[in-house]
Amino acid sequence: MSMMDDELEVTVDGISYKVAALSEEARAQVANLQFVDAQMVDLHAKLAIFQTARNSYQAALQQLLPRPRQ
Length: 70
Prior knowledge:
Elements: E1 9-12, E2 15-18, H1 24-64
Antiparallel strand pairs: 1-2
């Protein structure tokens, strides 16, 4: 984020809050959410890679299987 730390906001249930004005416990939960969100982005990227690899392996297998008789 390009904002200064005292300008960061978090939106919960449609209401925006300045992070700097939150309690220490609330800021910790914001940090937890940011961490989890980043992990989810990473997992989605990994899932896309794995799906691409799976498709490739499946296509390679299809080329190696005997053709059914018609």
